[in-house]
């Protein structure tokens, strides 16, 4: 009798499946090229809207100046560094501003989220630029950035 | 004593294997529509009731976690348990979602996925109109109201049509942005009922997940292309024969004083 019970116990132990409670580590199913295209494509969309919505004329107290970063004539690696620097510039100087005209640049909005996700998967370290660098108005910064993102998108597409 | 305890444990385990619900990842399927919704379904032969099961969904938005919960209910059109949430923040590629299946407070299953890996586009709505030359002009509504233009540009629609009741089908895939497709009538069998359906897929996940199939749209070919053309020719001849009479009929009549 005892032998039978022990055999049954072993059989049950071997055949029983454990409850899955651990988080399965995710592996990227979609190739990087497709998600790069999605992130950059949506960044183009969001920049177009942000530029369109941003007032052409601003009172002096709302004028924002950002570093005049080199945005054209870049190779792929240089552009990755640029996008990281752009994110830092926008986060430190625009994202936290209270006026509604800066809503597109909040860190929980699509523009900044797309930029953040792109940088997360492309750049290991973000080289910060000198604060003494020349500055340009936010509107011009965004137009230059749009041209650069379009360029990056055309190379992935 | 030991024998009794061991026997009852064995019986309990055997009972549980037969009747307890221990879901695997294949049992829980979740999809997002890349606009506002995540829908999950739970399917297993051993699931007798949906009550007591709930889903926690966590969206990682710029390292801030947004939490949602839904309770499973039995679907009207399938025997699966379904649960859905509407997200506050829009979807962005590569952001993580963690779905945790609970029975009461007991965690049964937890999985983290990237947004793009579980996008299932909305089901398209088809419209078919017969044209003057006997062709069929197909248009569709992708059902997206809020979606950004890049996502919509990257959608493709797969149109499938064939003779009603027969298995043989023809499929055509076109970009969503094309907006329409013309089926040439002379390539089809005359005086025959055809059925058209469609699904959509996105390049965001390399078209790996198709939407649900659209409601079928039926259309009937002319008795012959010549009969279709005959109607047009007769109409044209009538107009040419007496154009003044035709114009007079079309003009508004002067009011009587």
UniProtKB/TrEMBL annotation, chain A:
Stretch forming the signal peptide: 1-22
Keyword tags: Signal
Domain of life where this protein originates: Eukaryota
Protein name from the UniProt record: Interleukin 13
UniProtKB/TrEMBL annotation, chain B:
InterPro entries: FN3_sf, Ig-like_fold, IL-4_rcpt-alpha_N
Interleukin-4 receptor alpha N-terminal domain: residues covered: 27-112
Protein name: Interleukin-4 receptor alpha N-terminal domain-containing protein
Single GO term (MF): cytokine receptor activity
Recorded topology in the membrane: Single-pass membrane protein
Signal peptide bounds: 1-20
Predominant location: membrane
Source organism (scientific name): Cyprinus carpio (Common carp)
GO cellular component, one term: external side of plasma membrane
GO biological process: immunoglobulin mediated immune response; production of molecular mediator involved in inflammatory response
One Pfam family recorded for the sequence: IL4Ra_N
Subcellular location: Membrane
Keyword field: Membrane, Receptor, Signal, Transmembrane, Transmembrane helix
């Amino acid at each position: 009798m005892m032998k039978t019970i022990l055999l049954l116990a072993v059989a049950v132990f071997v055949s029983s499946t454990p409850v899955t409670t651990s988080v399965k580590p995710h592996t990227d199913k979609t190739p990087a090229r497709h998600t790069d295209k999605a992130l950059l494509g949506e960044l183009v969309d969001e920049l177009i809207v942000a530029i369109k919505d941003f007032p052409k004329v601003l009172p002096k107290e709302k004028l924002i100046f950002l570093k005049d970063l080199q945005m054209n004539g870049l190779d792929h690696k240089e552009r990755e560094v640029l996008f990281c620097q752009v994110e830092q510039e926008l986060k430190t100087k625009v994202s936290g501003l209270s006026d509604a005209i800066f809503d597109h640049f909040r860190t929980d909005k699509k523009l900044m989220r797309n930029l953040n996700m792109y940088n997360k998967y492309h750049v290991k370290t973000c080289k910060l630029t000198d604060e003494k660098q020349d500055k340009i108005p936010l509107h011009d910064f965004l137009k230059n950035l749009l041209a650069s993102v379009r360029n990056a998108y055309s190379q992935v597409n | 004593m030991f024998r009794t305890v061991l026997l009852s444990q064995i019986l309990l385990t055997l009972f549980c294997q037969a009747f307890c619900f221990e879901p695997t990842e294949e049992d829980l399927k979740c999809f997002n529509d890349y606009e506002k919704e995540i829908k999950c379904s739970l399917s297993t032969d051993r699931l007798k009731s949906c009550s007591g099961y709930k889903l926690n969904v966590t969206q990682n938005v710029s390292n801030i976690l947004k939490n949602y919960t839904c309770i499973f209910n039995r679907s009207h059109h399938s025997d699966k348990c379904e649960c859905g949430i509407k997200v506050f923040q829009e979807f962005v590629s590569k952001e993580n979602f963690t779905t945790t299946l609970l029975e009461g407070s007991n965690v049964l299953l937890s999985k983290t996925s990237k947004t793009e890996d579980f996008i299932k586009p909305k089901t398209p709505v088809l419209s078919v109109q017969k044209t003057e030359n006997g062709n069929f002009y197909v248009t569709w509504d992708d059902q997206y109201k809020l979606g950004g233009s890049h996502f919509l540009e990257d959608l493709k629609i797969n149109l499938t049509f064939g003779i009603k009741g027969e298995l043989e089908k023809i499929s055509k895939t076109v970009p969503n942005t094309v907006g329409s497709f013309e089926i040439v009538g002379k390539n089809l069998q005359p005086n025959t009922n055809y059925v058209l359906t469609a699904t959509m897929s996105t390049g965001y996940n390399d078209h790996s997940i198709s939407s649900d199939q659209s409601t079928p749209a039926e259309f009937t070919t002319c008795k012959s292309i010549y009969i279709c053309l005959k109607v047009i020719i007769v109409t044209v001849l009538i107009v040419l024969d007496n154009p003044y009479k035709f114009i007079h009929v079309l003009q508004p009549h002067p009011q009587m004083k």
